[in-house]
Amino acid sequence: MEQLRLGIIGAGFRWNITDFWHQPEGRSIITALAEIDETAMNKFKAKYPDEAIFYTDDYHELLKRDDVDAVVVLTEDYKHKQQAIDVLRAGKDLYLEKPMAITIEDCDEIISVWKESGRKLMIGFNMRYMPMYETMKQVIDDGTIGEVKAVWVRHFVGRGGIYYYQDWHRNSKYTNSLLLQKASHDIDVIHMLTGSYVKKVSAFGSLDFYDKPENFEADGLTHQTAAEIDVEDNNVLIMELENGVKASYLQCHFTPDYSRNYVVIGTKGRLENDDVNDTITIKTRNTDSLHDKSDIVIQMKPTLGDHAGADPQIANAFVEYILDGVEPKASPLDGRMSVAVGVKATESVRSGGIMQEVPQYLSQFVPQ
After folding, report:
1. How far apart are CA 317 and CA 125, in angstroms?
2. Which fold has domain 128-305+336-357?
């Protein structure tokens, strides 16, 4: 059996996904880890007490190893560009956690190096592998709600203070903004559901809650970092896509609950998800009767694995991509375009809502 040997760069917040790659009796195995934080490295060692795994605090040493076929980059967003380029130039295939980078120019440089390298590059958009959004995509593609004309997304980010305002996420130097870092998933899903990219945006946002020490205390948060808080915690984004679809995305980091609510409206009806109760409701137009419009409710089955069962699926997809040549559900261009929308949305927020054109990718850089 052919087995993919993986090197991991970064064992921080996303490190649990490595469970699905370290399968010594399966099709993939972790052979090396690069991590600069000693505590994180020791936690990894305790989880995988395998003397055969090579450990280093310098990822360049990992890239030199012959027992590493492909590399998984799980580090902070602002490190992605250089690490991705170094991995590809070292002749290794690459899984790059979203977002691809924090500027459009950095994404374009990664794609250019990817083309030159001849290696494989996959972006970690795990929402594309969540059964709920896969099902929504299938309903749309089946024509059940007709031609899509509008997408509305409400993102209630409960625990936002814990996840985004206690560390590097809270500073624009490292994230650009949370309309890029956090929303990159949802922007990509909007692209996936509509089959089109955003072409222009207008956005408003501000720091409305986590600029006040008493609100950190009310959340039971005591740990503070030196990183300045200069990213917005309350955002509204409106978009127009190349195919004419109108979309909106609302993101708030101080809600008491956590959920993503999608409404997709087409010419024959609409669908709406409820990720708390794991349902998708479909309403269709019935011109014969004003009263007989029964809803179709899809009850999603329970899933195993983090992120609603997406993590084991996306981890396996990377293995199949490298070993079997099965293309992943998101391309590097998809990764670039989600960043481009986030960058331009942030520029709009910080310029008072001025409409921004989203630059499309230069086709000559797309691999043939």
Report:
1. 11
2. Dihydrodipicolinate Reductase; domain 2 (3.30.360)
